[in-house]
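Bumping my old thread because nobody answered last time. Still need a sequence for this structure:
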């Protein structure tokens, strides 16, 4: 006797048996998603390191009349992206991630000293290490291995935020290109948020500014890829002066 084929039977999907390739693809996607989620966490404005609080001399530049309009802020941030972030922060991030992936902690410490030596003023160095101190507390809370003394009974070491960012990115299997993009975007977003409050800019102006600076962000990433260790360094005296003056205002 032939069983009649009903409409419901015809609509039922064929059972699928996962192949080895489909399982491997799913695992790869899941692994990439986990790295992406961690990158979003590391680059988030909610990361408790006070990135928004450190405005890189914007207050003094505004008080002096250097910055007063959206176009002025664009030029100020473009200068820093191309001549500081691209030539110090991002190349150092690449080298630090490479050392952290190898767990070469002596090399990580050496590169950390290099980054701190590139800060052009006491205030810029303090800004970097204050954010680093906050991030090292977070990494310790998350039980992420790192070589710097911190905590009860120890003398805290000076650590750059970039160093800890690199260690976290390496631990979470984030590749350098993604980590660099996340770091640079986080820096830019924090600076635009500060400018929005200080200039002030409207929310729409801030979003336009972020959009206008995205091509500059891409240029900064390309420049950083060409910088070797012996080329790391930047000279932005107006930024250093503005940052130091801000602390005395």
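Sorry it took so long. Here it is:
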């Amino acid at each position: 006797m032939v069983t009649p084929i009903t409409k419901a039977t015809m609509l039922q999907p064929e059972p699928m048996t996962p192949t080895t390739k489909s399982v491997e693809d799913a695992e790869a996607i899941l692994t990439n998603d986990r790295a992406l989620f961690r990158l979003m966490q590391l680059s988030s404005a909610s990361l408790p390191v006070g990135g928004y609080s450190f405005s890189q001399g914007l207050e003094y530049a505004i008080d002096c009349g250097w910055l007063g309009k959206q176009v002025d802020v664009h030029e100020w941030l473009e200068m820093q992206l191309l001549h500081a972030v691209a030539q110090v922060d991002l190349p150092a991030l690449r080298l630090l991630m490479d050392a952290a992936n190898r767990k070469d902690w002596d090399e990580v410490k050496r590169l950390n000293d290099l980054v701190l030596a590139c800060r052009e003023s006491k205030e810029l160095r303090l800004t970097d290490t204050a954010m680093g101190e906050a991030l090292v507390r977070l990494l310790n809370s998350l039980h992420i291995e790192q070589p710097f003394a911190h905590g009860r009974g120890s003398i805290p070491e000076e650590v750059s935020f970039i160093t800890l960012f690199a260690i976290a990115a390496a631990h979470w299997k984030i590749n350098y290109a993604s980590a660099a993009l996340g770091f640079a975007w986080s820096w830019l977003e924090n600076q635009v948020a500060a400018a929005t409050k200080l200039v002030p800019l409207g929310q729409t102006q801030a979003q336009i500014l972020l959009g206008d600076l995205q091509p500059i962000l891409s240029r900064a990433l390309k420049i950083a890829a060409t910088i070797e260790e012996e080329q790391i360094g930047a000279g932005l005296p107006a930024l250093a002066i503005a940052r130091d003056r801000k602390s005395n205002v």
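Residues 69 and 199 are 7 Å apart (CA to CA). Let me know if any region looks off to you.
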